[in-house]
């Protein structure tokens, strides 16, 4: 399969920019572990080291050599991280301007904004991007412009990403609800949240975003229903089937970290959907085109992947057949 390549200039910029953003994300994550502030509080005739986070105060212990050392270490570490984060943020902004100048990115802006909000809310590490948008994460480090890969009938293989995004989240329901308003505003989208996972435990949630005209393309109803059913019945398997993590670049140059499925797992899911289609549907399905694209990236050793378990494959195939049976 002949694939459209990223220009040498853009490829170098992608390499430099993603390295800077990855370090920025690491420093931010480390800073989040040092939430709130430490201070000394007098209670009666005693003085205690107190920790305040989101208005809630807890006492670490009475003043002494150990708590004084903890206080100084916290203060010094937090100041260092804040300074490092400020410096890196400036570097990220410079990289983002360069990204736009050399057309390094192709991810739709609403998708990048959602990913950034998930990072800001501390939800990114428990997230798995499902469906079409994952192709950007596979294509970018491979030096392939996936937005220029077309299916014989349906146009670009990533067309649905402009209008629709599905994210599986493993997080407390309260944390997701707290982040919803900013997510809606950042992406200017209709957002729907539903519990996921066959056990019925409210540990996993499927969050769906509808951008633009806020309606799905008719050609993608099967894929979206398929991923929705997968998330409902196989949330644990999806979450732990192997993660592919990549800093992705948007069309405007902005960056964010995308966590999605292992490429072979993604390809297996799309092959199963394509093979489950009724024989009366003759035209090549967009899911098949996406699977062939990922197969090519893996075969050319452009992305590192591992094969999914046999039992997982059987379950996925069964779900694909049911989606078309009920469609």
Question: Assembly type of the shown chains?
Answer: single chain
Shape: globular
Strand percentage = 15-25%
User: Span from first to last CA?
Assistant: 31 Å
- Structural class of the helices, strands and pairings? alpha+beta
Runs in which pLDDT lies below 50 for 5 or more consecutive residues are 214-218
Share of helix, binned: 40-55%
Radius of gyration, taken over Cα atoms and rounded to an integer in Å: 22 Å
Break the fold down into its secondary structure elements and pairings:
Blueprint lengths: L7 H25 L4 E7 L2 E8 L2 E7 L2 H37 L7 H12 L6 E4 L3 H9 L7 E2 L3 E2 L7 E7 L2 H15 L2 E7 L7 E7 L10 H13 L1 H6 L2 E7 L5 E7 L1 H13 L10 H14 L10 H17 L1
Antiparallel strand pairs: 1-2, 2-3, 4-7, 5-6, 7-9, 8-9, 10-11
Characterise this structure.
The chain has 327 residues and is an alpha+beta fold. The chain folds into 2 domains: 1-104; 105-326. The protein has helices at 8-32, 65-101, 109-120, 134-142, 173-187, 221-233, 235-240, 263-275, 286-299, 310-326, and strands spanning 37-43, 46-53, 56-62, 127-130, 150-151, 155-156, 164-170, 190-196, 204-210, 243-249, 255-261. The chain has a 4-stranded antiparallel beta sheet with strand order 4-7-9-8, sandwiched between helices. The two termini are 31 Å apart.
Features:
327 residues; alpha+beta; three-stranded antiparallel beta sheet
Quick summary of this structure?
The protein has helices spanning 8-32, 65-101, 109-120, 134-142, 173-187, 221-233, 235-240, 263-275, 286-299, 310-326, and strands at 37-43, 46-53, 56-62, 127-130, 150-151, 155-156, 164-170, 190-196, 204-210, 243-249, 255-261.
């Amino acid at each position: 399969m002949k694939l459209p390549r990223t220009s040498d200039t853009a490829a170098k910029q992608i390499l430099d920019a993603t390295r800077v953003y990855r370090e920025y994300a690491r420093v931010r994550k480390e800073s989040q572990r040092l939430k709130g502030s430490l201070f000394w509080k007098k209670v009666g005739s005693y003085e205690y080291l107190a920790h305040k986070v989101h208005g809630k105060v807890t006492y670490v212990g009475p003043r002494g050599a150990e708590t004084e050392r903890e206080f100084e270490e916290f203060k010094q570490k937090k100041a260092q991280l804040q300074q490092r984060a400020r410096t890196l943020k400036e570097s990220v902004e410079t990289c983002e301007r360069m990204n736009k100048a050399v057309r390094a990115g192709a991810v739709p802006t609403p998708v990048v904004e959602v990913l950034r909000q998930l990072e800001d809310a501390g939800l990114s590490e428990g997230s798995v991007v499902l469906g079409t948008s994952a192709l950007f994460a596979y294509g970018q480090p491979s030096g392939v412009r996936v937005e220029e890969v077309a299916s014989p009938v349906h146009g670009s293989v990533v067309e649905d990403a402009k209008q629709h995004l599905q994210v599986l989240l493993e997080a407390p329901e309260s944390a997701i609800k707290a982040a919803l308003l900013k997510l809606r505003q950042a992406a200017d989208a209709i957002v729907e949240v539903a519990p996921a996972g066959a056990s019925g435990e409210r540990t996993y949630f499927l969050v769906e975003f509808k951008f633009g005209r806020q309606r799905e393309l008719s050609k993608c109803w099967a894929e979206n229903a398929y991923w929705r059913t997968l998330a409902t019945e196989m949330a644990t398997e999806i979450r732990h089937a192997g993660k592919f993590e990549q800093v992705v670049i948007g069309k405007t140059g902005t960056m964010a970290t995308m966590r999605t499925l292992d490429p072979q797992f993604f390809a297996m899911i799309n092959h199963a959907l394509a093979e489950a289609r009724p024989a009366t549907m003759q035209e090549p399905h967009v899911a098949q085109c996406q699977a062939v694209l990922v197969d090519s990236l893996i075969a050319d050793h452009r992305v590192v992947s591992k094969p999914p378990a046999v039992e997982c494959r059987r379950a996925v195939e069964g779900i694909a057949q049911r989606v078309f049976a009920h469609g």
